[in-house]
User: Fold these one by one.
Assistant:
Number 1:
Amino acid sequence: MTHDRPSGRLYVKIWAALVALTAVTVGAAGLDLRHVSTLTALGIAVVKASLVVLYFMHLRYERAMFRVMFLVALATLGVFFGLMFFDYGYR
Amino acid sequence: MTDEHAHHDPLGGRIGMWVFLFSEVLLFGTLFIAYAVDLNLYRTAFSVCSRNLDRLLGAGNTIVLLTSSLTMALAIVALGAGRRRRCLGFLSATMFLGVAFLAVKALEWGHKIAHEVYPQAEAMLRRPAGEQTFYGLYYIMTGLHALHVAIGIGAIVVVAAMVIRGRVSADRPGLMQNVGLYWHLVDVVWIFLFPLFYLVR
């Protein structure tokens, strides 16, 4: 490990934030606002996933190389998404 | 002469795990792409079907997995502090939560299957295409995810055994860290599965 791990206490705080964000997601879905709800729910999911990846998976404390690798993987997936919609969008 | 530590490469091991996780991201990612297209095609049907999924069970399972990620992280902290019993306690909690998740999933699937809501069921084949697509994606994506949870539980059992035998310790935490990474990724996948199947309106 390049740096020391966060303390157990920080992990508990992250967990609490994740649970709170889950509650917000469920609450927002109850508003029945169609596309806004979907985007909100996805946006919150991205925040939750970021917390898990950065803290629980330690990416925030790893050397920069790991973060670059991770972004390359996400970009690759993004390319797949993009190509699919270029295809599907013009059929 | 063989040196037991000759091939001990924690950094290399961790890089390898991350590369494997990237392959998992692409595996689930392409399924999410299929979902995105179908959500666009069958928006109303997806909304109808989503209401038929139990939102409370889904939210509950989300909390279960989030908590299991916490206990997994705390197990690693305990290992680093040399507190073996504590570590094993947290690993057991993680396993228990994983099994609880699978139990709830089995309950949900069983309920649906009992009502003839599964791919190729007679009643299912009479439903509109959009609904069949939703449930098809539901079973494949939550099924693949559940398989990953089950494998993760198995991996945690193996790590726990190695902690007991002293093969995984504060000096050699790599295997547990890697299993932790895998477990957290399974959690991340569910973080996206939950709203996309249970909260579509």
Number 2:
Amino acid sequence: MSTIGQAEPQRQIDVRFMGATVEVPSHVVHRSFPAETIVLDLNAGVYHGLNHVAGRMLELLAIHGRVRTVADQLATEFDAPPMKIQHDLCVVCQELLDRGLIELDEPLR
Amino acid sequence: MGLSAWGKLRLIGEIVVAYCRVRLGMRRAEPIEVAAAERRRGEARPQEMDGVARDHLADAVERVLSVLPTDSPCLVNSLTLLSLLATRGVQNTLVIGVRPGSDFAAHAWVESDGRALLPTGGGEYQRLAEI
């Protein structure tokens, strides 16, 4: 099972995610547990683990779709600086996208 | 189940055939697709099956498959039973459960009308998906 939620410092962050709308496809199921969120890609048969924050991000992305809306809500929930939240959210979005756990409504621009 | 000797042999044969189909299917596709394919086989022989009959069918599947090779016994057992239930027009759900944490594990079982027909892992696994 792969783990998502630990940012790699050297990785380039694609801030264009902030203007994106994403969708969690129907073949991706997830459930939050006390220590982690487990995600299963039913098509690939692969499990992924998300830490608490990344799990909450996925949950909100599934509800809202618009990444900026999610960022705003997270900044309030975690009482954290918006820039930090946006940075981390973009990292997680990239990882989720790379693993096929979210899809973009339109290409990033 | 009150089957004759011939009836038992037929059932064993049916289970083995379904098992082979499931194993072959799992080499080519993921479990969700195999489950869908088995369900599409449709209600070839619709039957009234009460809870006891469903339990007996599940028990027969476990017993027969216990002597056959498989890498994922819970999943293969589940898909095989699902196939037999689908053929009989019996409602079924494939449930995927997980045990989170450092000792992560996944388990599969089949439910029908909300009742587990195969072992659920004794409460160790929490529901993640229902297919």
Number 3:
Amino acid sequence: MIIITNMNITKDITTNKYATKERRVSDILVSSGTGVIFFGLWSVVKTILQIILSQQSIASFANVEDVALDGTFDATTYVIISAILAFVMLGIDLGLRLYAGLSARADGRGKKKSIAYIIVAFVLIALGVISVVSTIISVSYLEGTIIDKVVTLIVDITALLALVELVISGIRLKRIRRKSGVMPTGG
Amino acid sequence: MQEDFHYYATYAAAYLAGFSHRECLDICYSDQLVDLCSVSFLSDIKAPHSAATTQLQLELMEVRTDVAGLQDITRIWASFHFLPFDLYADPGKCSKSYADKFRLICNTNSDLLVDTVNLAKGKSLQAIGIAMHILADTWAHRYFAGTPSLVINNTNYHFYELVSEDDTFTKFSERKINFRHSTGAGDDLENSIYSNTIFQTSEKSIMNLGHGRAGHLPDYSFIRYKYLPSWGRYREIVKDNPADYMNAFCQMVYAMKFLRGEYEVFEKERYDRDAVEPYVNVIKTILNKRQPLACDDWKAFGESLSGETIEDFDLHKYRDEYLQAGEDEKDDTFLGRFVLAALAQKSMVTGKIYKSGIKLAGVSVDYGEKGFKGIKDYRKLVKENDTLRARSSE
């Protein structure tokens, strides 16, 4: 840390050699947390837009058009239940991303946070890797429109990188704080 | 800095350096005029626009931010208000564009400051006033650059005032500074709520010129604060204005003694604290007093030194003299001498910036080397140099 002054107050200001690093990593954590939130929101917006703009039916979205019905439910009920489940999954995904992103931002701003959000981010990374791999496979098998798949791939990879950055920064910040002995404020 | 320091404090420093009351008035008037000599003012008195030493807010709102416009902005602000510290500084691994802007960051006791003071040696009182303005501003405006640049001049939410817990000014507590964009509301000194320029993502926005992103804080003599400058890579800067302003005052006294002929050489890092010592408590009280403008206090101090009345600054005081003078006589008027000194200063700084490989202040030519080259306004400098050479050979 540079302290450039001409008066006595330099002697009274605590100089912490980790302060610069902590500020840098905190800033990155806040930025990556914001990115994770935005990608989570984007997933929801994208889904809604896909349904509205491509006039895709709820049934096809829930992938139940070709499912053979065994008679337990009628077709409509099956579609509704599946669609609800699909949106619930979407909601859970959004919820996890919001939790990870908001916690990362709070941790970066100095509020005390447990490592729970880092674990959640790890889970999201795992799911993200599966998603990316499946997209790559579908591209390589030329299923569907290539352009759509490539764009989806790019966005998914970027979202994944934001999560990775979040995890790395979160872990680094905790290490720096442990070494410097500076504890974040309660929050 | 503001009128309180540029006008009244400079008067006091000039008096302590040994100038007479009338000379002090000329010096401090020229010092303050640097903050007001805009293209609008020069148009009014039909003087060369190239002598502009500032750009008013209204002018900045309409200024072009294309290459030519940016160069004009940089020429003015880097020459008179944000004198670059090290035109050859090494900012580490970065693009040339970033490095050029980094090298324009202002700081105290630079080689350019020595050049500025030396340029005023043997010249008019107006030249001394301009040099003192620039010297004082290197203390107030340090760590900012006189070119619009987000990556150099931006600040963020990490901005804290260091408020003294008692009158000894040795123990400080931190208070978060909140910025708002409301020029009409003014700064709330008691609650640390200040105005600054709006955040603009555009790198070359006029909002990112100089210390706009830190608001008026560098110009308040009482304030101590810490923040993260954009160029600092997360390193924290602590700015102690009372100490910096005291240094500026002592350095002005020393510089003006040099300009008066008391010293052979102007050296960096020299301050005439002995001359200021009898008054240091009075000055510290003025500097630490929590007020937006300290004109009354500095005026009272200056008048107590000289026993004379310091007239208030009047921008149009010398207007008629200049307008009514013939073409051949204009350079001998008060404003004529100011114009010459401003042209010389701008030419010197712009030349140094250009020679260092930085094109942000535009192209600079040696106007008198082999016949006259360049903007015709600067032909006056060739004439002045010829006159000075003729006088010295006599």
Number 4:
Amino acid sequence: MSHPPVQILGFAALLPEGMLTAAGHSPWEADQQSVADVRRGQVLDKPHLNFGKLTVSDRLSFAAACLLLRSAPSLDGPRTGIAIGMPWGSLSADIRFMESVVGGFPSPAIFSATLPSSAIAEIAIYYKLQGPNRVVSQPYASGLVALEAAERVIRSGKADAMIAVALTAIEPQDRTSPLLAGTTPRPDAAFAFLLGKGPGGTPFSITMQPAGHAENSQPEDVYLRSLVERLQSRRTGAIAVTARGWFGKLVLGE
Amino acid sequence: MPSQVILEHYAAFSPLGALPQTIDALFSGARGIAAGPCFGVPVAFAAFPDERFRDLRFAASRLGAGAQGSGPLLFCCAKGDIRMLEDHVAGRPLSTTVSPLLDEQARCVAEVLGAGFSRQTSVSTACASGAVAVEMACEMLLDGDAQNVTLFGLDTLSQFVVTGFHALNALSPQGARPFDATRDGLTPGECAAFAVLTVREARPGDIIIAGAGSSNDANHRTGPSRTGDGLRRAAEAALQDARVSPEEIGAVKCHGTGTAYNDAMEAKALAALFGSRIPPCVSVKGALGHTSGAGSLLEILIAAECLRRRALPPTAGFQIPGVEEAIPISAQPQGFSTPSILCLSAGFGGINAAVVIREAA
């Protein structure tokens, strides 16, 4: 059975060099050392009391979604879901919570962030997005696989739109943790895409397959940057993905 | 005959033992809940009778023996096996070589099961992980991306989880009493569950995964929506996916944690969904505890066994109705005739998931 193509209706990115949307690029201010230093006012026009208290994962996924939805069409809340891909799940929050347990004062606030799905919660609550959720937690290609999961939800008819977030976020003190199982964290970054059935978007499809060791594999953010650049310049075509442990193909256009 | 998603093979281990023993124990009214303390916290808890099942590799090898899956493996859990993280932060010698990273745990399970899985993916959507994994599996199978999907779930009692829920004042000192007027919190438990879903024509007696759906309350990070609207929408999505009306549901396997808010919310969702004709309902968390993300899969497998018997076990811990709506919860077994069960799950972050199972005629 053929399905109408899923479209990318919008995108946003928080990158080490600044913020990126269809409207253009905004560099960070001089006192912002990394993506994690993003300020509420840079992505959200309305107040948000807890923005600065969110864990780095929750804050970056929320900030990317805010930047995306600033210029997005209004969404049908019950029919819009969220998918997120993150390399290490909620590892930083897990470590912080266990530290609070060992210290004798378990923190209920941190405990509520010790699930990979907590990075979805803030987005869902703020924008009243009540559709299905998907969480991909794996060290490589997590964002691309989350993008694939989001596209599949729309094709299944269970949602009309999905926000797909590809997140690389870990607290600085955890970057060399032995719990990372030998993976090497890339710089913090967050990409957010609005997928839907249109109109006005760019037709899009993605397939991802696990693969053994691949020559010339690139970090996932290389392909996500390529996707964003093509969307910005309205170029169509295919992007072949060779990420560590994964092959894939993104196609923009019919 | 159209192809459908079939629950081809399944096994589990709970605080009442292996799945067949668990079912018999549930129907006899047994409770696998012990009095506290649990990791120094004065609460009731539900532990494996064989603590070797807390080891991911052991649990996978016992439950998945003979697995011949070639499609995707979905590892569903809330935290899985978190001992390495606990040991590392506490400065203790490591008691396991299993990584706390969920993808590494999925890889570990795939290695133990030895089958040639096309991919392994972790599914961690809080306490609805198992049901969401079933929903994802159905999408893969009906999309033609796979002929079979293997699901494995494990969540264990841990200082991390027990202390966390205690910090939220969510735990009952004496044991969960779902939907009861004196309910005062949930009971942490642990479980392991294994299932293979395949897509083919149904044969008489098959358990069909007829539909699945999920939603988000978009209300609060840890507390459910007071209206039950999110859970109702997940259930409606599952019913729509299954192409059945509420009147065609024979029974409901509730989430029923035993907390004041969850059970009240769930009762509202059931009333909104079924109106005045709510079918017989059960919660197993008064007997098994809240077995977390993997428990969402375990409880679907328990529902499958209930479907074969056309009966629900007693809701252990329930005595006096404690929600506004008239929910058919009972301290005795309940029979039902329509061969279908709606299975409900909910989790932190506002995630709700529902699965409809039915027995092929």
